[in-house]
Amino acid sequence: MADNYLERKMEEYRSGKLAPTRRSGVTPPRHHSGAISLTLAARCIVVATRCAATTAAVVNAFRRGDCKVSFSDSDLRRGTRLAQDSGARYYGDRDIAAIATDMHSRGESIDMLICDSEAVSDAMAAGTSAHIVALAPARGSDNAALTATAGAAVTTLCGGSDDAIARMCLIAAAEGYEFIRGKSYDLSRGQSDVCDR
Q1: pLDDT (tens digit per residue) in 109-159
Q2: Which DSSP string corresponds to the chain?
Q3: HEC states along 36-70?
Q4: How far apart (Å, rounded) are the C-alpha atoms in residues 85 and 1?
Q5: Which of 36, 49, 134, 195 could form a disulfide with 117 if both were Cys (CB 3.0 to 4.6 A apart)?
Q6: pLDDT band (50, 70, 90) for residue 195
Q7: How far apart are alpha carbons 108 and 100 in whole angstroms?
Q8: How many angstroms separate the CA atoms of 59 and 166, rounded?
Q9: How many C-beta atoms lie closer than 10 Å to residue 25's C-beta?
Q10: CB 111 within 8 A of CB 44
Q11: Based on the number of CB atoms within 10 Å of its own CB, is 8 exposed (0-12), middle (13-18) or buried (19 or more)?
């Protein structure tokens, strides 16, 4: 009895009656509710901040976006671990000029530099023409002075969580979002204003 049943099922399978149904057409990609997707214009990112948590958040965000990321960190173990976990290039405790020199010797150019506001003049001395995102310690930093120092538009981010900073850096690097360059943004809780200084 079991043999007949199996033979019939095998016959049905071979004739296509039991074949899995196939959908025609293309299924749309699944997105989380409320999620947006960005196309990143910047492909080579350098992160040189003193805050380890911010560095890790920004490095991981851009690596998920499949960008080449290089970063510096004063703690050898922490930096090595982040590089191994994310696949980013770790430069130790080097300054921006040394990172830029090494990247230029490799034939790479920096598309976006994310650094502390105090390091903007160092970045310009290194001869980088990258879009600069400066992380200011507090609201009210003088974005006009940073832009004048850099000779180019500097986007300044004030306050906010490490994840908020990483998200804003992603938006600054996205295609079609060039209009946010050269402005100062306060990312603190409850503050959503844009400060053109």
Answers
A1: 888 899 988 888 777 776 677 788 888 875 555 555 565 555 566 888 888
A2: -HHHHHHHHHHHHHHTTTSPP---S-PPPP--TT-----B---EEEEE-S-HHHHHHHHHHHHHTT-EEEE--S-HHHHHHHHHHH--EE-TT--HHHHHHHHHHTT---SEEEEEGGGHHHHHHTT--SEEEEEESSTT--HHHHHHHHTS-EEEEES--HHHHHHHHHHHHBTT-GGGTT-EEE-STT---EE--
A3: CCCCECCCEEEEECCCHHHHHHHHHHHHHCCCEEE
A4: 58
A5: 134
A6: very low
A7: 9
A8: 8
A9: 5
A10: yes
A11: exposed
Amino acid at 17: K
Residues 6+ apart with CB under 8 A from 48: 71, 72, 95, 96, 99, 113, 114, 115, 116, 119
CA quadruple 30, 32, 33, 39: dihedral positive or negative?
A: negative
Would you say the pTM of this structure is higher than 0.85? no
pLDDT 10s digits, 76-104: 999 999 999 999 999 998 888 889 889 88
- Residue 79 makes CB contacts below 8 A (sequence gap 6+) with 71, 72, 73, 90, 92
